[in-house]
Amino acid sequence: MNFNFKEIVTATMVLFAVIDILGSIPIIISLRKKVGHIQSEKAALVAIGIMVAFLFVGESILNLIGIDINSFAVAGAFVIFFLALEMILGIPLFRDDEPKTASVVPIAFPLIAGAGTMTSILSLRAEFHVENIIVAIVVNMAFVYLVLKSSKKIEKLLGPNGLEVIRKVFGVILLAIAVKLFAANINELMGR
């Protein structure tokens, strides 16, 4: 076992920035309004499962089906882009025929364990020991769970106007992340 506090802290901060659960609060609240209830435990556990599985077999799976990491990241950028447009313009783009829960799709995937997170995990794997990345994933998912669990309290605290402002601001930030993810990876794809 190669546990290293510095690696754990660095990986935790990288994943925290990419997952950006605080920025996703408006999306979580609007999804909760659509479906009525979000199973916080299920969302966090599914996201942990996806991320840990991707840590071990992600690159192999992508190679097996002939998709490189850059293509995967560009596809993820489109998903993030449309979520951002939904937040900014108030136009519902994500539709599901009477969804019973939003815990797995779109919260666990692609909101928490999306293309940005997966790409970051593969990048971290090249630099850090696997056990440190797993600890970083678990720490982040504990925080995600707390945010999901207290989304009603956060909604009451902010009020409808506060939520709307935060929704628009984070929509623009999410849009910028999508553009950055797209630009960074499309250059790699076009350079071939």
Automatic annotation (TrEMBL):
Belongs to the UPF0056 (MarC) family. One of its GO terms (cellular component) is plasma membrane. Its main location: membrane. Coiled coil: none annotated. It is found in: Cell membrane. Keywords: Cell membrane, Membrane, Transmembrane, Transmembrane helix. PANTHER family: UPF0056 MEMBRANE PROTEIN YHCE (PTHR33508:SF1). This is UPF0056 membrane protein. It is a multi-pass membrane protein. The chain crosses the membrane at residues 12-31, 43-66, 72-94, 101-122, 128-148, 169-186.
